[in-house]
Structure formats: structure tokens, C-alpha cells
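User: Hi! I'm working on a homework problem where we have to compare a predicted structure to a textbook description. Could you give me the structure for the chain below?
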Amino acid sequence: MSRETVGMIFEAAVKVFAERGYDRAKMDEIARAAGVAKGTIYYHFTSKDELFTALMNHGLQNMKEYVRRRIDEEQDPTLKLRGLLDAEVSYLFQHGTFAKLLLTEVWSTSERQHEFRAHIHDLESITCEVLKVGIQMGQFREMDAIATSIAIFGAMSVSVIQKVFKDAHLTGEELANKNTAPVVATLEALVHRGILKN
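Assistant: Happy to help. Predicted C-alpha cells:
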């Protein structure tokens, strides 16, 4: 099966899962939305659960790579943190339907939480690395970098999902253009008050 076909299935699946919810989504609906036979989906994914897992792993892996590329452009910890916040927020806005799934469906069962927790932990670890460098360089105050990175991810997630649902009529690009800068500015002000040395 071509990468293009898998991409079409993922694109259709994310929409159907987000609109119907995981439990009510049907493979027939996903096949229709993707413009492929249901057997084509089952050729690559043995079940709805396997498709959902592959879809979420794909999206989270892309998000991690996107964030890593953005922060690798900066050396200064404060600028790295700004780039990280901007990358996470803009990625989720650009992929608003994926964001809905990530921040709602993923937490619905303990099995899903366990499956995706490693990816979320990787994203939090990137933040933790930035915080530790800032502490070592004397730009950030002494803190529990792990707990702080978890809190930052939580604040970012809730801020994004509220806007995604509020502006559900907008495309991903429109969501990102409208909301990325103000959300990042709010998060940055909140985070900087807590971590920057005076």
C-alpha cells in the first residue's frame, strides 16, 4: 500500500474519529471518507483500535520532530522556550482535528493513556531539557524541571483545546494564524514569571 493511500486513510480517520468519537466511529465511514474500499484499510490495519493507535503515533511523532527542529534553531534557553511553545501551539492549531483527538479521546481509557503517555513524556522531556539548560546557565531559577515541564504541557494543551473547540469553524491554518501568537504570549508571560530570574 502506498504512503499516499495511508495518508488518505489517516486524514479521513482523524476527521471521523474527531466528529463521531472513537466508540461511534465506523470503519465503513472512514473508508468512504478516504475514498477507498474497507478491505484496503483492513489490509494495513487489523482493527479500528490499531488504526487509531497508528494515527495517533504518527501525529505525535510528527509533532515531536516539528518541535525539535524549531528549538534546535536557537541557542539561548529563553528563545528556545519561546520557540518550543510556539511550535507546540502552532502544530496543534494547524492540526486542530488531531488536537481534538489527542486532548480528548486519548485520555478516555487507561490503555490509550499508557500507549500515548510515552509520546507525551517525550514532548515534556524536550521542555525539561530546555529548562535544565536555562537553570545551568543561570537564566532560570532553581526548580523541579520535570514537574514544571509537565505543568507547561498541561497549560499549553488546555489553552489550545479551548480555542480549537471555540473556533471549530476555522481551518487549521486559520486557527494557527488567529490564535498562535496570543496563546503563546499568554503562556510565555505565565511561564516566564515563574521561571526567569529577576
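For your comparison, note the following. Residues 80 and 162 are 25 Å apart (CA to CA). The chain has nine helices and no strands. Good luck with the assignment!
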